[in-house]
Amino acid sequence: MKEYKWPYENEIGDVQTDKAEVLVLGGGLAGCFAAIAAAKKGKSVILVEKGATVRSGSAGTGFDHWESACTNPCSQVTPEEIAEAYVDEQSHYSNGIAHYIECREGYDRLLDIERFGGKIRDTDGEFAGAEFRDEKTKLMFAYDYKNKFTLRVWGSTFKPALYKQLQLLGVKIFDRTEATSLLTAVEDGKKRGIGACGMNVRTGKFHVFKAKATVLCMSRPARVWLFNPDLVGLCEFRPMQSIGSGHAMGARIGMEFTMMEKSVKGEFSAAGRSFPPYGAGNNHNTWYAATMVDARGVEIPYLDRDGNILEMVSQRYYPVEGQKFFLKGGVIDEPKYEYRGPETMPFDQLMERGYQLPFYADLSKMPEMERKVIWGMMVGEEGKTKIPILQNYTERGFDPAKHALQSYGTGWQSAAFLTQERQLFGAPGGIMHDWDLKTNIDGIYAAGDQLFASDCCGYACATGHYAGRKAADYAGTVDYIAPVQADIDAEMTRLYKPLEKEDGMGWRELNMAISKAMQNYCGGVKCAELLKEGLDLLTSYEQEKVPQLCAVTPHDLMRTHEVLDILEVCKLILGACLMRESSSAPLCFERSDFPALDPEKDRHFITIRMENGKPVKGIIPHDYFGNLKEEYEKRNQDYIGGAH
């Protein structure tokens, strides 16, 4: 039998130290823009990415639409209108600061990407004459064809364009390197971020990164409730390596988080009950507003906000009379009446009227341009759809002009999850921050999916650029501080510990155990006793199972580190759930021992941070960010003046 040989050099135990004024952790959209913004301000920049920056992150393979581009030349809405609508629609459990940055600066970032080589408009005239295309600018719009603030884009072109720009600006990129811990020091009685540690996931080399300012641009947590060891890559909608390590790193140094009690019933996961994202017929997000039919081929009606049947396909893309605009996509699943757009008749009404399951998305019944833009552009540009869905289905003979694609689950959700099978979708919790996107720790900033109530790609790009330039400004006011060697030594010991065992528990086993514990003790309905038992169980895993972990290769070791981070995040979630002693509809949060729904006394952000191993609760008013336009302009005159 041929012996397998690890194809990369063995550098386990070797240490490399590098220094830059701004350190960016995470090379997705937010990380790329943070690095670009800091470099353009003349700062030396290091970017650390677990994968390969050219295609890494949640949008590495692409995305199909860009929300809240309120300043594009065709837009009929203002940044204030949309940002405030998001805050109101989410009952103020929303990130007004980040949403306003997204609405105010998002289109600027699209223009940046176009300059870098990405494709944001129909320059080839492929969709000339389509109702959703503006003939003058060649921009293409989704959802609301009247107000035109959501753009259809060729997202698969974006990451390579950003990567090229990073190289042109001289950003030092450490690919295949996982960030594992944040380094801090105490200066003038306050904790300050001074860099990070990491490990090369192919060679095992240990890295120390010294910095004046750090920007966290890593992912939201995942693989918390849902994990399947045989289908690891399909456990979550986002890439499998995006599991919330930045949250875990922050938690270990006392970073403040909010809304960590919020989770929603699963939407996409082969570890649960769904088909691959956008691979089953539906009428949401990428597929909006596909024609739906029942098992007999009878068309399912679309209704306007007030319940009136829409007779024409074109009517599905316009607000009802008297409505300024509607909200669709991203974090918006069931909007309030004021923001509700056209939608198919509710499932229960369809059953009452005799419509028969299964349902199908039938694009053959749509105008040619609408069919072509859904199947071929939207399905194809959206993450993970180009090869597994568009290419594979087409090769197997699927023709949207002739065939209908079946829906699954209840109606056309393409999934049917149990309430305990949960995910951090729909504007989940994350890092609490101020108007500079600075955390409670000096010198550490956050962007994209690390922020609380995070959204989609435009949100990531806009907040990444914003955090990058604020971090660069801060870096110009401070000196480097040398890290404590004992902190570095302790992190090396922690990282390499699983290599010491020749036999023991693998990372898959522990991930499965954690996910099952979260389903059992932090499911759809929560109470203090369940949550405390969950914490006790996770503590026992930490004490008894973690020492049994073993790894053979650096890649295997990286997966082991990920599960340790998942364990850290789970403790944060359980702690936050114990702190909110009432139920909340907007937070999708139900406690059987505190059934009162959204009582006035609890309508605020509850924050959690760890101090000496104990959770510390904080309370912050919903409107802590003040008047969005005024507060933004007070702090960004240099940007408004053209220093982009």
Arithmetic mean pLDDT: 95
Q: What fraction strand?
A: 15-25%
Low-confidence stretches: none
Tally the helices: what do you get? Answer: 16
Count of individual beta strands: 24
Shape: globular
Q: Helicity level, as a percent range?
A: 25-40%
Q: What can be said about this structure in brief?
A:
By secondary structure, the protein is of the alpha+beta class. Strands 1, 2, 6, 7, 8, 9 and 20 form a seven-stranded mixed sheet that branches. A four-stranded antiparallel sheet has the order 19-10-23-24. A three-stranded antiparallel sheet has the order 3-5-4, with no helix packed on it. It is globular, with a radius of gyration of 24 Å.
What does this structure look like?
This protein has 16 helices and 24 strands. The strands form 7 sheets. Strands 1, 2, 6, 7, 8, 9 and 20 form a 7-stranded mixed beta sheet that branches. A 4-stranded antiparallel beta sheet has the order 19-10-23-24. The chain has 644 residues and is an alpha+beta fold. The mean pLDDT is 95. Strand 8 and strand 9 form a beta hairpin.
